[in-house]
Amino acid sequence: MTSTIWKPILKRGDQVLYRALAQSLTDDIRSGKLPPGTQLPPVRKLASRLKVTVGTVRRAFELAMAAGLIDAHVGRGTFVTHLADMRTNDIKNGSRLELIDMAINKPAPIEAGDLLARATTRIVRSDNGWALMDYRDQSGFSQHRRTIAHWLRTTGVPVHAEQMVLTVGASQGLAVALATTTRPGDKVFVEELTYPGVKNLIRIFGLEPVPVAIDREGLVTSHLAALINQQNDVRVLICMPRVHNPTTRSMSSARKQDLAELANLHDLTLIEDDCYGPSPSRPSTTLFELCPERTFYVSSLSKSVAPGLRVGYVVASERVFSAMSAISQSMSWTLPPLMVELAADWIRDGSADKLAQLRHEETVARQKIVSNVLGNHPYEASQWNTHVWLHLPEAWNPARFVESAKNRGLLVVSGDLFSIQPRTNISAVRLGIGSPATRELVRNGLTIVANLLHASYDFADVT
Fold first, then answer.
1. N or C of the chain: less Cβ packing under 10 Å?
2. Quick check: 70 and 84 in contact, CB under 8 A?
């Protein structure tokens, strides 16, 4: 680490003073005059030396920090970052800094090519291998549905094949459930924070969302009860009782019981989004188990087994099976039979459970990195999913945090994106720790986050 008595040359032109100072700082960093690790003068000392206000220097430093050129640490000072040196080299070489992507919420990567090779070899050598290249409707997948239903029962979900429609992932499962239960213009209850996939489906189907409050135990049933009394024309609720996206929270057993009782009392249909999938080692009552006649249970093998399978399912009362099947077929004439056969093969020989366990172990390892790097910063996480809900200090505006992270080489998602109602006071960001290819990249990305959180400057008022 080196220190400097940096004396910037201010070329104001038409710029306001703090922008001229920021430009001088940027030029000196990129020219090598201020190499990585250089400690800059304290704000007040530099302001006195230049005969400008403290606010001018602070704003200039904030702009440089937003660009990823400097970092400030409470009790230590302000330093030129090593990322600044990378950016300078990128400029000289005409290349771009490779971004660490934590914006996408993907399952943790694993390597199990041997399982894929053995299964596909068995399938293509079987007597009906070529038949998997033909169209099939739901009746053509009856054996596969029995296999998946049996597997779900071993995890505690009381499902039978006659209640199940296979779908292209959980997203189509949600679409089938909404198409079966709603019409354009209907109102639907939905948690006040939810992921963009649900928001997009509500918009596509022409529905009007009615947000329901959530707290540390998930959906607040007392608030839902009040809304039902106020708006007696709403008949459908979409919710994520287990491992909510984005907050990672799970509803308590008591809350689920309260919700089931509300549904029965007020003739409310529940669409239960369990996209992370059930697990034998994660016993937890589903809403479908509590009120099967009123619940559409939606899940898939994407997050737990393999995202490329694109095999999902929606389970509901047998009385709506024909309607769900017809709607699913109108959305996509058939699922890829080869992928459905692969999923069933993996379930039968135990590979699905092995893959799920491998992903869980990798997720736990990455969550430990989160704990080590973020330390006491307030965040929410679960060992059953691969994202983190990070609460930001008051000084940070979420949009500016996202921008600053990107300038440092990291993609994250602002909490505002998950709000059902447009607002800008959700002081959180979601970090997808499953997307980076390696644990080292996870640690590097989280280090960028930690450095931003440790910064002592308030970016909220930068203009």
1. C
2. yes
Q: Please, are residues 264 and 232 in contact by the beta-carbon 8 Å criterion? A: no
The crossing angle, in degrees rounded to 10, of helices 54-66 and 17-31 is 50
Strands, E, within 76-197: which ranges? 77-80, 100-101, 164-167, 187-191
Is 127-348 the same fold as 100-108+354-454?
A: no
Residues 6+ apart with CB under 8 A from 133: 337, 338
- Tokens for 416, please give them: 């505002």
| Local structure of 379: helix, strand or coil | strand
Q: What is the predicted pLDDT for the residue at 261?
A: 97
Topology of domain 100-108+354-454, CATH:
Aspartate Aminotransferase, domain 1 (3.90.1150)
Kindly list the distances between the CA atom of residue 413 and the CA atoms of 190, 220, 222, 417, in Å, as whole numbers in the listed order: 20, 25, 30, 7
- What type of residue sits at position 427? S
Beta bridge pairs of residue 212: 191
Choices 1.10.287.3510, 3.40.190.170, 3.30.470.20, 3.40.640.10: CATH for 127-348: 3.40.640.10
What DSSP character marks residue 435?
A: S
Mean pLDDT, consecutive 10-residue segments, the chain of 463 residues? 69 75 85 85 88 88 78 77 55 57 94 93 88 82 94 90 94 97 97 96 97 95 96 94 95 95 97 86 82 96 93 94 92 89 96 94 97 95 95 88 89 94 84 96 94 62 34
- H/E element, 451: helix 439-454
Best CA proximity match to 246, nearest among 395, 400, 361, 417: 417
Which residues, in sequence order, are CB contacts of 137 under 8 Å at separation 6+? 325, 329, 334
CB 80 within 8 A of CB 33: no
Closest CA to 389 of 412, 363, 365: 412
Q: Which residue has the tokens 């704990």?
A: 371
* pLDDT number for residue 84: 54
Nearest to 419 by CA among 408, 407, 427: 427
d(CA 146, CA 14): 72
Burial of 57 (0-12, 13-18, 19+ CB in 10 A): buried
Q: Which residue has the tokens 């409050």?
A: 213
Q: How far apart are CA 252 and CA 266, in angstroms?
A: 21
